[in-house]
Prior knowledge:
The chain is an all-alpha fold. Helices cover 78% and strands 0% of the residues. It has helices spanning 26-49, 51-58, 62-86, 92-111, 117-144, 151-180, 182-203, 215-222, 225-245, 248-256, 261-310, 314-329, 331-343, 347-350, 353-376, 378-399. Helix 2 (51-58) crosses helix 3 and helix 9 packs antiparallel against helix 12 (314-329). It is globular, with a radius of gyration of 21 Å.
Amino acid sequence: MKADGSGPVGGSAVRGTSARRGAVRPGAVLAVLFAGAFVMGCAEMLVVGMIDLIAVDLDVTVPAAGALVTANALGLAIGGPVLTFLTTRFDRRHVLIAATAVFVGANLLPAVLGADYPVFVVARVAIGAVQGLFIAAAMVTATSVVPPERTGRAMAVVISGFATSSAIGLPVGTLLGQAVGWRGAFVAVVVAGAVILALAVAVLPSVPTRDGGGAVGQARHAFAPRVLAVLAVSTLTFAAMLSAITYLVPFLDEVTGVTGSVVSGFLLIYGVATAIGSFGGGRFADLDAARSLIVGAIGVTVSLVALLVFGADAALAAIAVFGIGLLGMATGPSIQHRVVALAGPGAPLASSLPASAVNVGIAVGSLAGGLAVDRGGAASAVAVGIGIAVLAVAAAWATSRLRAPAAASEPDAVVSR
């Protein structure tokens, strides 16, 4: 086990089982998991880019259309862990296939079946829940097909699928929605999801849950205080980021003096930074996940300070925004790595928790930033983000020495289909 307590985790290969893994193609498995994460991330973000079109077509207000985003987030944050808990005894291959099938079916409601607003909201909750289930099962599957020393990089593949959907999928989906209508954009999601489903059936290996890995037993380890403490690091880090980023547009207007199409450039910079950070962070997670969380939290703090102090200069503001996205998302694989390692036998269930922690952080950061904006303008939201980021640094340092119990046994390796 490594110095950060992050030895073989989440189904990583156990020595002596390479012969059984011979039929598994790690590259193909990781590609399917990345593609699935990308398509689900696109579906999540499509509403953001077409919110005005949806509001008009469904005859609801823009804030009501925005509730579709909230519904997806709540489904992911709450429904994801619940579904993971309920499916702990099932083979991860079957869970991934079922989650993808439900995702396709739920997106058929707005895409083809003409769902009205209430049905669309319910569908979004279901989509978020199976998205959370997919993340957890994908993490276990990804780490099961690679050697232990590449665990973080395997996790980063799944995480970067979602991050890339924001950087690339959101603008492309928005353009598609404007060209063929918002329902047409969701038709594209259904088609892509169906392709992913077919690939999942053809490529994904069997990753059975070992004997004794029942839901209650896993929950005892997954929700241990040491795991919750590390999850708090993620919540604080993303709360700090989103406190500022949620109100980046008014900040650019009030402080930087940037409006119009240039703002889209800043948003693209942030999206690209998150994609790079989420993928590159995997290598640092493999080297030392605990230290990476400290460095990432410090980097977010420094970037937020730079945005507040030098925000009047457009070039320096762009660099600061890039730093926030890059360093913040780079902590994603390390959080996943640490949580799964500390959960030990509860790793399959614990794999669903970082996504929930991130969504809680997003909600808390947006709320805290909004309250600050009401009282002191957009710059105040950045100042609040700095305060939260300092807490994230302290939490990352305080949890860096946490270790999983020595008695925690290594999870089973995958077997070929």
